[in-house]
């Protein structure tokens, strides 16, 4: 089934996740794109990116929207015509959107060992020395990266740094929740985060608290 999962984390918010298994041609059926989006998808060289792009339009349909309802601001942040909030993500063969009546962000990441090599660029790696094994470190780092990525999508300010400005509170895997803080340009902003893991992927979505 193409629609992999639907989540209602709270009233007024829905998460839709798609597992991309269909052909590009199948995904194009019944979908009308704006001229801008037709140009975007035509310029994509990667087949999985083209299929992912179209699967997101199917997710939007699940949420009651068409491509014409979506627009992007100068920072590349997506918006909906009815003023609800939307965030979009794509990783390999999974795509997802979150639609809400409050500011939200979402990110999907594939769990890969290469994240250990780049960890120092987005979080103090020494904080993870107590974890039992490399698999646990990869899982936790992927959640932290996804948390910061989803927060960045909400905050969307030039100059905001993952390492310098975004802090993710430590968490236990079984809790599936954590929180984050952005300290930037003299202001502090708080976020709630929820995460889930499936088929070697991690999905994190966040809510602005203040």
TrEMBL record:
Task: Quote the InterPro entries the UniProt record gives.
Answer: 4-PPantetheinyl_Trfase_dom (IPR008278), 4-PPantetheinyl_Trfase_dom_sf (IPR037143)
Residue span(s) of domain 4'-phosphopantetheinyl transferase: 103-197
Ordered alphabetically, the record's keywords are:
Transferase
Question: In the record, what terms sit under GO molecular function?
Answer: holo-[acyl-carrier-protein] synthase activity; magnesium ion binding
Record keywords: GTP-binding included? no
User: Could you identify this protein by its name?
Assistant: 4'-phosphopantetheinyl transferase superfamily protein
Q: Which organism does this record belong to?
A: Zunongwangia mangrovi
Lineage, highest ranks first: Bacteria, Pseudomonadati, Bacteroidota, Flavobacteriia, Flavobacteriales
């Amino acid at each position: 089934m193409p629609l992999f999962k639907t989540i209602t984390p709270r009233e007024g918010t829905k998460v839709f996740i798609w597992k991309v298994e269909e052909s590009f041609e199948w995904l194009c059926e019944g979908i009308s794109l704006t001229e801008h989006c037709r140009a975007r998808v035509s310029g994509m060289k990667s087949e999985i990116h083209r299929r992912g792009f179209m699967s997101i339009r199917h997710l939007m349909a699940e949420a009651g929207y068409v491509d014409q309802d979506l627009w992007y601001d100068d920072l590349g942040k997506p918006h909906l015509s009815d003023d609800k909030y939307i965030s979009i993500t794509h990783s390999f063969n999974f795509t997802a959107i979150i639609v809400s009546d409050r500011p939200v962000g979402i990110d999907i990441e594939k769990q890969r060992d290469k994240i250990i090599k780049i960890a120092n660029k987005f979080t103090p790696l020494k904080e993870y020395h107590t974890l039992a094994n490399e698999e646990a470190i990869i899982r936790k780092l992927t959640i932290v990266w996804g948390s910061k990525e989803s927060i960045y999508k909400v905050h969307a300010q030039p100059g905001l740094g993952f390492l310098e400005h975004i802090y993710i509170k430590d968490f236990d895997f079984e809790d599936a929740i954590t929180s984050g803080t952005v300290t930037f340009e003299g202001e502090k902003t708080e976020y709630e985060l929820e995460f889930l893991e499936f088929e070697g992927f991690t999905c994190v979505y966040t809510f602005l608290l203040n």
